[in-house]
Amino acid sequence: MRMRQLACGLVALAGVTGFGATATQAAAVTTARASASAVIQPCAGKPEVRPATFTISCADGNSYLTKLKWTSWTSTSAKATGTYTINNCDPYCAAGKFISSKATVTLSKPKSVKSNRFFTNLHVAYVSGPKFKSFNFALLT
Question: Which of 22, 77, 94, 99 has the smallest count of CB within 10 Å of its CB?
Fold first, then answer.
């Protein structure tokens, strides 16, 4: 039923604006589908597109991303800004302090696995004190 309504809407649009608008609409729909074709796998649960949070260290939860605002999400990469939080593990992890910093996040290197296309690389860049730091983290390896 939904596809029928969409088709009727495109036909109506074509009647008002001409054939070129229909081709543009079809291209936009195809682009939207392609842009959502890559996903990220959280520690538990179903693969996600544009998650608001992401735990990096699944075993102990000592590093994670929150307040993610995605500026792009395509089939080849995704970019966001957010907050990176890490346990400084000083003097040891159970007694450590969690420190948060603003961060930029990039997902890349998608790989097809079964019926999904997963991002396999996470890059996080952030400022810690006076120093700029960054790291890459392998996902689904």
Answer: 94
The whole-model pTM stands at: 0.73
Closest CA to 49 of 119, 104, 135: 119
Q: What is the pLDDT of residues 7-56, one digit of tens each?
A: 333 333 333 333 333 333 333 333 334 444 799 999 999 999 999 999 99
CA 78 to chain centre: 5
Count the residues in the chain. Answer: 141
What is the Cβ-side half-sphere exposure of residue 101, based on CA atoms within 13 angstroms?
19
The helix-helix angle for 2-17 and 19-35 (nearest 10°) equals 140
Domains of the chain by residue range: 2-34, 38-138
Return the amino acid letter for 26: A
